[in-house]
Amino acid sequence: MKDAFGTPQSLLILGGTSEIALATARRLIARRTRTVWLAGRPSPDLEKAAAHLRGLGAETHTVAFDALAPDSHETILGKVFAEGDIDMVLLAFGMLGDQALDERDPVAAVRVAQTNYTGAVSAGLVCARALQAQGHGSLVVLSSVAAERARRSNFIYGSAKAGLDAFTQGLGDALHGTGVHVMVVRPGFVRTSMTAGRPETPLATTPEAVATAIELGLRRRSETVWVPGALRLVMAALRHVPRPLFRRLPL
């Protein structure tokens, strides 16, 4: 169960090598979290992440999980929940893709969409049902500011995140009153290995800043978190820019 400040004792991360997720885990372990499950494709990086969290004092387990294998999600995640209550699920897997290449390769574009949207829908529904059955817990989903409006430079990734964002909001409404808290996190450009080499956008942030915002959102039981917070106002303005003008902006 969570403590009086909303800190979970147990945490399941879907996308166990995500830099944002691991920064969040470190922050929560420093508070009260004692058990962490890292779900992801088996790899040395996944084992390294688990060893790191164990060194911080958390009982950490790894579980083989593939976002692109939805037929396996119910069985794999069901086994995790069967081990005991999970106070927080952080859905953090995703792929940025390469817009220029993906436009020329529909199969690659579909892989971006399946990873960021359909895989997340499957895993999100499985975890939501399990959280509802235990009567408590938080489902935190990493969306993106890219979900707010399609841009020429990343509309394949952005469209998938837009679908995920809408799905998560609807899921939150469906679970309202059940004891399950659903929170959408919309970071802007985050400095990670996934974005290395790409030109930064204004208001760029870090995994640690996103982790801080997630923790604060948990305490407040927020439904939507922007990182940094100023992006809420920026996107509110950009959302209403006429399309001919928006098309010409250097975004």
From TrEMBL:
The keyword Oxidoreductase applies. Signal peptide: none annotated. It comes from the Bacteria. Its EC number is 1.1.1.333. Keywords: Oxidoreductase. One of its GO terms (molecular function) is oxidoreductase activity. The keyword Oxidoreductase applies. Pfam families: adh_short (PF00106). Belongs to the short-chain dehydrogenases/reductases (SDR) family. This is Decaprenylphospho-beta-D-erythro-pentofuranosid-2-ulose 2-reductase. It comes from Streptomyces ossamyceticus. The lineage of its organism: Bacteria, Bacillati, Actinomycetota, Actinomycetes, Kitasatosporales.
